[in-house]
Fold this sequence. Notes:
Blueprint: E1 49-53, H1 58-69, E2 73-78, H2 82-94, E3 99-103, H3 109-123, E4 126-131, H4 147-168, E5 172-181, H5 184-188, H6 194-214, E6 220-224, H7 234-238, H8 241-245, H9 259-270, E7 281-282
Parallel strand pairs: 1-2, 1-4, 2-3, 4-5, 5-6, 6-7
Region (Disordered): 1-40
Enzyme class: oxidoreductase
EC number: 1.-.-.-
Amino acid sequence: MSEELKTLDKAHIDETAEEPKMPGHESGLEPKPDWQPRFPGSGRLKGKIAIVTGGDSGIGRAVAVLFAREGANVAIAYLEEHDDAKKTRELCEAEGAQVLLSAGDLGDPKHAQGFVDAVIDRWGRLDVLINNAGEQHPDKNIEDITPEQLQRTFQTNIFSMFYVTQAARPHLKRGAAIVNCTSVTMYKGSGGLLDYSSTKGAITAFTRSLSENLVGQGIRVNGVAPGPIWTPLNPFGGAPKEKVEHFGESTPMGRPGQPNEVAPAFLFLACEDSSYMSGQILHPNGGSVVNG
């Protein structure tokens, strides 16, 4: 085996050279994404304990703050953007929630287990799991995707979901909900995001299969497939500059979405409003019609 491929023998791949700016700081993004909940809370998650991975910024921040407004205490996992995470904690606490922050790479199974253990040590229970953390790397040619990048993208986007869900499963009781973040690229494809869109296909299959596995035990599993949403992911290296300049213009609505236009889909699937739904995917994508 060549030197280049030896990385595949490892159980965990560290950040690659392509990632010095990723996933990016929302504090440095202009214009700032809209994360604010748009309506008063109604207690739909009162007393619940929720995990939100990738909860420091973007969609994750909007979900965490909305869940806090709806009465949940929130555990936020993030990679290393401490300024964003601190801000999100302050926003959730302003809504009356208790917050646990955990920095590190959930693609490492030991860290994923330690994070869930910390949640249980803090609150003694877990009711909602939001698997949202992800990364992407644009490449025009499949030959440009290195073994390290390929494994890293799968490690962050889908392996981490397995690791966190495996750690969480013993603590999820009847009535619990899992919501996974997939993408419109799973349905439409993306010529410049071959590895990323492949992971999103895996996430959709994981969501449907996990639903079949758990639905008989009263645990619902669903997913959300956002379209182009204005978050740090694309401007900080997840898309070429020329694409960022016209980000979201190709949607029927002609604009990118905002995180607070996606978060309510996660809330719906996390609470009892969706009690007769499992194995399903919601599509906040600006009007693109896809086979869901």
